[in-house]
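Entry: Uma2 family endonuclease
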Amino acid sequence: MAALQKPISGDYTIEEYLALEAASDRRHEFWYGEIFALSGGTRAHARIGTNVVGECYRQLLDKEYRPISENGAVKNTLAPRPDWPLFVYPDATVVCDEPVYESIKGIDVLVNPTLVVEVISPTSAVRDIGDKFTIYTSNPAIRHYLLIESETVRVTHWFRNDSGT
């Protein structure tokens, strides 16, 4: 799944990152000028992510919601900053009705997730709880942000209420 590894190196531009991402068969995230290759993570991380997608699929089979695995990028709807990514890769997402994608430099990015799930590992915790929380909660389409820890038994569920907070 999507555990962050050590950065490839620093001082990349967003354009350099997008060129690498478009040409690569691996996924990467761009943070503060550094490009991080996303690894397969631990077996526990992978098992949790697979179980989440499978359970979402089972629970939503006859509904208008669709689970999407961790291979899909989600758009960062915040104002562009040179130190933040244009999109991120959650471990799982769920969309209501039809998924809407936007092409960013040739990469299809999901715009309208309803639920975003991150499986937290020691190497991804700071971003999942910090910057990704800010990115995900700024997107009004996202109603639920689920954080599942891979090394302890803990789940945190953030949700947007009817007033939007």
